[in-house]
C-alpha cells in the first residue's frame, strides 16, 4: 500500500471513529426530539393549588351528574368519574347525618372518591382513602383518616385525625387535638389547630394554635403582660465592635440586646443573638442563632441560619425565615390582619395561644405545643416514636 | 534554549495545576447539586408586607420586545400600589420611545419612562441616570427581551427581607431553544450555569453572581458600594464583588425563572463572550486581591470569589497550555517525572469532562431527555469561547472606557422575536 493511500485511509478511519461518537448528537440535532424550552413553574406554590384543581374537577363532575336523568337515591349511589375513578355520590337531599357513610359498601370508603352535596358527618374511626368533597360543612369524628378533603363550608376534624395530602375549608377549619396534617392545609376565613396538632404547610388569614379554653390555656401566658411600652424603651447605641453603615449594624461573633432597649437599625450577627425581655428590634434581623426572651417586638423580618427561639408573647411584623428549627413562644403574634406574613423553617413548634396571620411552612414538621411524637402508618393508625 | 524550555515546562505545570483546581470545582458543584442539601430559604415567603419597588427595563431600540416585558410585569401579582416601572429608553431610533409613552399615558403613576438623549450610552449609565427617580428600597432590573412570570417579582423581592442581602439573581431560561445548534448549546450552557453552578454556590454559601437582569439590588447596598459604574464592561460582575467587599450577600433564586432570547448567530455570540470575558478580566484585576484579603469572608468564600473572577482567564490559560505543549514537544523536551505525567493524564481524562459532567447533571435536573445527547457539540462551543476570549485579549482592542478608547457603546444583542409580535399598547 502506498503511503498517500495509507494516510488517506488513516484519516478516513479517524474521521469515521470520531463521527461514530457524534452519532447520537447528530441524531438529536437533526431529529429535533427535545427542543422545547424549559417549562417554568407556575402556580404550584399556591397553598390551594391542589384544592382549586380538585374543585374545578368536582364542579364539572357534579354538573354532569345533575344533567343526568338517572334518579339518585337519598342514600347515595356509585358513579364512575370521567377519569375512570369510582366515586360515591351523595345528593343534596341526603339525610341523617352520619348515616350515608355507614350505608356505603364497607370497601367503598377506601376505594371511592366521596362527593357530598350536603353537609356531612364522618363517624369515629373512619378512613376515607380517596378524595372527599363536601359542598357544605364537614364534621369529622375522632381517629379518622382522610387522603384529601375539600369542604366548601366549615370543616372540623376530630381528635387524632390525619390528612395525608391536603385539606381546604371554604370557611373555618378546626383540627382536633393530636391530629396530623401532611401536605397543605388552608382555610379561607380562619384555622384553629388544637394542642398537639402536627402540620407541614398551613395557611389562613388567621391561624390560632392551641386548644381554646383547655386546662393548660387557663393560665395567661407569661409574655403577654411583659410587652414594654415604646416610651419606656431605651434607644441602643451601637456598642464598640459593631460596625454601623447605611442603617445596618454588622456584628462579628455573638451579640446581646439588653432588656427594654430599642435597636433602631437592621442587625446582622454572625454568631448568636440574645435579646432581652421587652426589647424592640426596629429593623430586620439576621443571625445564626437567635434566642429571645418574652415580650420582644420585632418590627421587621427575622432570618436565622440555624435556630430561632422566640419567647412567649412576642410580636413579629415581618416574615420569619429559619434554615433550622423555629420555636415560637406561647401567646405570640406573627403578622397582622392587614399585613399577613410567612413563617418558613425546617421544623416549627408553636406555643399555645399564638396566632399567625398568614402562612406557616414547616419543611419537615411543624407542631402545636404538646404534640406527641408520632407518625401515621400506611395501614392507618399511629406509631409513637420514642 | 534549555532555560526557555524549562520555563515553558514550569509554566505548563502551573497551568495544569490551575486547570485541575477548576476541575475539582466543577465536580464539587455538580456533586453538591446532585446529592447535597439544597438551599431555597426565601422561596416560601409568599405573604409579607411587600416593600415599594422600582422595576427598571433597559431598552435601546427594543420595539420588537419591550411591550411584552411591560405587559408581563403588569400581569404579575406584585401589588401595583407598591411598584413603579421605569423603562430606560437610551437614545432609541426605532418606535421604542413611542411605545413607552403609550404605556405611560395608560398607566401614568405606574409606568414612568426615562428618555435618554445624551450622556454615556450603556445600561450602567442608564441605570445611573435612573437612580434619582427610583422609589423604594429595592430596584429590580430586567432587559427588554425578558418575560417575567406572574410571581417573579415577589420571588425576587422576598430575599431582601434578609438584611444581609444586597442583590438577588433569578434564573434565566432560553425561550428560542430550538432555532439552531447554537441556541440548543446555549440552552445547555445556561442550564449548567444556573441549575448547577449558581445553585451549588447558594447551597454552599459561597458567592452566587448577580447577573444584571432578572435580579434586583437593594438601593442602600448600592449606595454603600458606590452605585452603578458605567466604566465597566460587565457592571453585574463588578457589582457582585463590590457588594461582597462591603459585606452584602448576593442570593440566587433557582426557582425564580424568566425567559430570555439567546443569540442565534455565532458572531453575536462571539461578541457577547468577548464582552463578558473583558469585563471579568477587568474585575479580576480590580478585585482579586481585595477578595483574597477580605477578613469578613470565610476561606471558601474567598477562594470561590477568586476562582469565579478567573473563569475567563482560565480559557486563555488553556490556550497558552496548548501552545506550551507544542513548544515543549517540538523543542524536544518531554514531560518528565511520574507526577507530571499523572497530572496531565488526570487532567486529560477527568478535567476535560468536568464541565460536560456539569452540563449533563443540569440537563438531568431539568428533566431534559434528548438534548443531553448534544453534549459532544459543546466542544465546538468551547473552541468558539476560546477564540472569543483570545480576541478580547488582543492588545489595544479595549480600554477601561470601552472599545479602544472610543468610549462605551451599547453592545446590543439582536432580537429574534417575530415581526408580528411588535405591538404598542
Summarize the structure.
With 386 residues, chain A is mainly beta. Chain A contains four helices and 31 strands. Helix content of chain A is 15%, strand content 41%.
Topology:
The complex is a heterodimer of chains A (386) and B (425).
Chain A lengths: L2 H29 L17 H19 L9 E4 L5 E5 L8 H5 L4 H4 L1 E4 L3 E3 L4 E8 L3 E3 L4 E7 L3 E3 L4 E8 L2 E4 L4 E2 L2 E4 L2 E4 L4 E12 L24 E2 L7 E3 L2 E4 L3 E3 L3 E3 L2 E10 L4 E2 L3 E8 L4 E2 L3 E9 L4 E2 L3 E9 L4 E2 L6 E10 L4 E14 L5 E3 L5 E3 L2
Parallel strand pairs in A: 2-3, 3-5, 4-6, 5-7, 6-8, 7-9, 8-10, 9-11, 9-12, 10-13, 12-14, 13-14, 15-19, 17-20, 18-20, 19-21, 20-22, 21-23, 22-24, 23-25, 24-26, 25-27, 26-28, 27-29, 28-29
Antiparallel strand pairs in A: 1-2, 14-29, 16-17, 30-31
Chain B lengths: L1 H34 L17 E7 L6 H9 L8 E8 L5 H11 L7 E3 L6 H8 L7 E6 L3 E2 L3 H6 L7 E10 L6 H23 L11 E4 H6 L10 H11 L3 E12 L5 H28 L5 H11 L1 H20 L7 H28 L12 H16 L4 E2 L2 E2 L22
Parallel strand pairs in B: 1-2, 1-4, 2-3, 6-8
Antiparallel strand pairs in B: 4-7, 5-8, 6-7, 9-10
CATH topology of the largest domain in chain B: Spore Coat Polysaccharide Biosynthesis Protein SpsA, Chain A
Element order of chain B: H for helix, E for strand: HEHEHEHEEHEHEHHEHHHHHEE
Q: Could you tell me the radius of gyration of chain B in angstroms? A: 22 Å
Describe the global form of chain B: globular
User: Could you give the order of strands across the largest sheet of chain B?
Assistant: 3-2-1-4-7-6-8-5
* Total of helices of chain B: 13
Secondary structure category of chain B: alpha/beta
Mean pLDDT of chain B: 86
**DSSP strand content of chain A:** 35-45%
Extended strand count of chain A: 31
Could you say what the CATH architecture of the largest domain in chain B is? Alpha-Beta Complex
- Quaternary: heterodimer
Structural class of chain A: mainly beta
For the sheet with most strands of chain A, the description reads: 29 strands, mixed
**Which segments of chain A are poorly predicted (pLDDT under 50) over 5 or more consecutive residues?**
215-225
- Count of the separate structural domains of chain B: 2
Amino acid at each position: 500500500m502506498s503511503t498517500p493511500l495509507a494516510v488517506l485511509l488513516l484519516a478516513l478511519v479517524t474521521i469515521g471513529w470520531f463521527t461514530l461518537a457524534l452519532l447520537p448528537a447528530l441524531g438529536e440535532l437533526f431529529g429535533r426530539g427535545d427542543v422545547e424550552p424549559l417549562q417554568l413553574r407556575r402556580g404550584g406554590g399556591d397553598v390551594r393549588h391542589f384544592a382549586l384543581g380538585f374543585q374545578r374537577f368536582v364542579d364539572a363532575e357534579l354538573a354532569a351528574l345533575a344533567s343526568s336523568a338517572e334518579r339518585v337515591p337519598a342514600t347515595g349511589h356509585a358513579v364512575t368519574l370521567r377519569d375512570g375513578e369510582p366515586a360515591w355520590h351523595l345528593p343534596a337531599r341526603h339525610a341523617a347525618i352520619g348515616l350515608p357513610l355507614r350505608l356505603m359498601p364497607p370497601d367503598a370508603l377506601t376505594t371511592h372518591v366521596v362527593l357530598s352535596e350536603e353537609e356531612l358527618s364522618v363517624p369515629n374511626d373512619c378512613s376515607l382513602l380517596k378524595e372527599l368533597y363536601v359542598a357544605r360543612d364537614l364534621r369529622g369524628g375522632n381517629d379518622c383518616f382522610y387522603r384529601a378533603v375539600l369542604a366548601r363550608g366549615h370543616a372540623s376534624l376530630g381528635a387524632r385525625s390525619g390528612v395525608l395530602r391536603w385539606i381546604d375549608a371554604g370557611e373555618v377549619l378546626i383540627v382536633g387535638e393530636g391530629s396530623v396534617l401532611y401536605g397543605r392545609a388552608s382555610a379561607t376565613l380562619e384555622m384553629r389547630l388544637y394542642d398537639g396538632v402536627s402540620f407541614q404547610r398551613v395557611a389562613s388569614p388567621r391561624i390560632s394554635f392551641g386548644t381554646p379554653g383547655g386546662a393548660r390555656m387557663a393560665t395567661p401566658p407569661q409574655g403577654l403582660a411583659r410587652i414594654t411600652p415604646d416610651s419606656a424603651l431605651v434607644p441602643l447605641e451601637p456598642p464598640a465592635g459593631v460596625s454601623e453603615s447605611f442603617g445596618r449594624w454588622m456584628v462579628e461573633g455573638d451579640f446581646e440586646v439588653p432588656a427594654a432597649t430599642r435597636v433602631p437599625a437592621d442587625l446582622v450577627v454572625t454568631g448568636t443573638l440574645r435579646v432581652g425581655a421587652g426589647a424592640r428590634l426596629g429593623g430586620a434581623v439576621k443571625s445564626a442563632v437567635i434566642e429571645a426572651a418574652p415580650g420582644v417586638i420585632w418590627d421587621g423580618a427575622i432570618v436565622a441560619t440555624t435556630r430561632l427561639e422566640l419567647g412567649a408573647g412576642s410580636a413579629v411584623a415581618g416574615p420569619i425565615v429559619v434554615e433550622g428549627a423555629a420555636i415560637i413562644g406561647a401567646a405570640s403574634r406573627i403578622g397582622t390582619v392587614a399585613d399577613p406574613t410567612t413563617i418558613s423553617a425546617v421544623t416549627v413548634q408553636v406555643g399555645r395561644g399564638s396566632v399567625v396571620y398568614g402562612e406557616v411552612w414547616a419543611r419537615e414538621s411543624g407542631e402545636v405545643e404538646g404534640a406527641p411524637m408520632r407518625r401515621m402508618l400506611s395501614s392507618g393508625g399511629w406509631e409513637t416514636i420514642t | 534554549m534549555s532555560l526557555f524550555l524549562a520555563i515553558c515546562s514550569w509554566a505548563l505545570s502551573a497551568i495544569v495545576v490551575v486547570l485541575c483546581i477548576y476541575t475539582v470545582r466543577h465536580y464539587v458543584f455538580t456533586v453538591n447539586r446532585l446529592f447535597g442539601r439544597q438551599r431555597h430559604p426565601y422561596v416560601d415567603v409568599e405573604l409579607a408586607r411587600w416593600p415599594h419597588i422600582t422595576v427598571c427595563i433597559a431598552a435601546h431600540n427594543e420595539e420588537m420586545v419591550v411591550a411584552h416585558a411591560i405587559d408581563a410585569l403588569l400581569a404579575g401579582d406584585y401589588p401595583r400600589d407598591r411598584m413603579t416601572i421605569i423603562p430606560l429608553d437610551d437614545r432609541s431610533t426605532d418606535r421604542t420611545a413611542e411605545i413607552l409613552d403609550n404605556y405611560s399615558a395608560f398607566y401614568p403613576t405606574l409606568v414612568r419612562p426615562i428618555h435618554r438623549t445624551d450622556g454615556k450610552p450603556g445600561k450602567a449609565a442608564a441605570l445611573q441616570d435612573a437612580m434619582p427617580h427610583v422609589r423604594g428600597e429595592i430596584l429590580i432590573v430586567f432587559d427588554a427581551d425578558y418575560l417575567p412570570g406572574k410571581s417573579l417579582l415577589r420571588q425576587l423581592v422576598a430575599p431582601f427581607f434578609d438584611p444581609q442581602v444586597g442583590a438577588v439573581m433569578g434564573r434565566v431560561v432560553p425561550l428560542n431553544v430550538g432555532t439552531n445548534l447554537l441556541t440548543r448549546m446555549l440552552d445547555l450552557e445556561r442550564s449548567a450555569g444556573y441549575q448547577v453552578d449558581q445553585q451549588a454556590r447558594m447551597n454552599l454559601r459561597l458567592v452566587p453572581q448577580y447577573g444584571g437582569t432578572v435580579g434586583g439590588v437593594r438601593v442602600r447596598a448600592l449606595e454603600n458600594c458606590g452605585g452603578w459604574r458605567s466604566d465597566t464592561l460587565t457592571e453585574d460582575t463588578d457589582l457582585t464583588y463590590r457588594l461582597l467587599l462591603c459585606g452584602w450577600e448576593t442570593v440566587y433564586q433557582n426557582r425564580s425563572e424568566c425567559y430570555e432570547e439567546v443569540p442565534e448567530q455565532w458572531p453575536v455570540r462571539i461578541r457577547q463572550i468577548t464582552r463578558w470575558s473583558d469585563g471579568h478580566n477587568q474585575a479580576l484585576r480590580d478585585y482579586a486581591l481585595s477578595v483574597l484579603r477580605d477578613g469578613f469572608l470565610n476561606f471558601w468564600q474567598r477562594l470561590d470569589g477568586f476562582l469565579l473572577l478567573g473563569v475567563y482567564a482560565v480559557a486563555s490559560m488553556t490556550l497558552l497550555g496548548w501552545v506550551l505543549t507544542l513548544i515543549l514537544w517540538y523543542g524536544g523536551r518531554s514531560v518528565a517525572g511520574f507526577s507530571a505525567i499523572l497530572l496531565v493524564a488526570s487532567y486529560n481524562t477527568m478535567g476535560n469532562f468536568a464541565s460536560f459532567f456539569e452540563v449533563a447533571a443540569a440537563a438531568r435536573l431539568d428533566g431534559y431527555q434528548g438534548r443531553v445527547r448534544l453534549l459532544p457539540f459543546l466542544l465546538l462551543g468551547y473552541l468558539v469561547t476560546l477564540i472569543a476570549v483570545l480576541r478580547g485579549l488582543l492588545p489595544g482592542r479595549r480600554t477601561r472606557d470601552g472599545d479602544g478608547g472610543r468610549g462605551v457603546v451599547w453592545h446590543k444583542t439582536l432580537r429574534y422575536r417575530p415581526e408580528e409580535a411588535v405591538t404598542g399598547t
